[in-house]
Amino acid sequence: MRHRLRHRLLVALGLLGALLVPHAASASAATGTPPQVYGAWHCSNDACVWGTVRTVAEFDAQNHWLIDRGDGRPSVNLVVLSFVEPLKLLHGTTDATTLNGVPRGMTKDIVQYFTSHGIRVMLSIGGITYTDSWDSALAENPTLLGQRAAALASDLGVGIEIDYEQNSGPDLTGLQSFISAYRAVHPYDATGADPTARLTIDVAAGDRWLIDLDRKATADWLRTDTPVLDYANAMVPSRQPSTSSAIANWQEHVDGKPTYSPPVPPLAPAKFTGSVYISDQSKSLPECTDFANSLQNSTGSFTRTVAPNGAGTTSGMLGYMFWAAERPSTRGTGTTPPNTCEGGVGAGATAYNIPLPMPALRQN
Q1: 357 lies in a domain?
Q2: Distance of alpha carbon 187 from alpha carbon 270, whole angstroms
Q3: For 32, which of 162, 217, 304, 354 could close a Cys bridge (C-beta 3.0–4.6 Å)?
Q4: Which CATH number fits the domain that encloses residue 186?
């Protein structure tokens, strides 16, 4: 009990401090378009395997900060459960960590834990560990894979994220078939009312990695006139960037790469989020615990005001994604108590007045 009371006091002081520091206040007062997406990837307690069924009580003890920033309101409006292995999903595999192709820990109870608090839920298919699995599944039967992803979305009432991190010769034809099969079941929904219609893709932090995937996604799937995917996440780089590096990465997506052959076209700011780390193997990060000194604060002016440069008509990126809740690695503390993120992510949700539930997203 003493430990819980001490933790609550520290959280309250952290939130108060974040709101009183002038630099933090500048984020909420900044002009421009406020974030609409403010979400966290979630890796469960086993480094993104989700291999064990968990009770809601035990899960809440480790993750309560996500649904309560300290004042009863959630810290995020989106959680992406990571990861589903593509080949196991295609084959409907049942083994020690998987049931009918789905990680055993990704249950309706866990989805309901978030949706009952107005938090949208998605499942991420892939991740860097499962790049070869994506290759194999797309080579074998991409249409069936898309159909099974759509069925999984229907069963759990969630959206799907494509995390295909093949940097050399990605199977873009197969991925197109996957997307077409998914969209045949769950058509694009600009209103955002149907959670199963939410289909997104991950691209690199900037335009210089996953180039072929980035080019295809930007040119054909993330257009504002004929959208196929809802938006992209510009993922975290290999380590936490500086403010200037994060901004430079995101500006690359806005500008495109006209000198590449073939070029990467510009991406509308309204069609992507920027990502930062909240979990570190050795120490707590400001992005988790100290909004005033966080990247989501120091980059706030840019993400709210960056102007289109060849694609889109409205200024400002779509929002932020955080890597990653609970235990993304077998090393380090993750975001489990007492290292929870009310003072960073949660305080940012307050400063930016993040909408709950997530509204219909900007389309251009």
Answers
A1: no
A2: 20
A3: 304
A4: 3.20.20.80
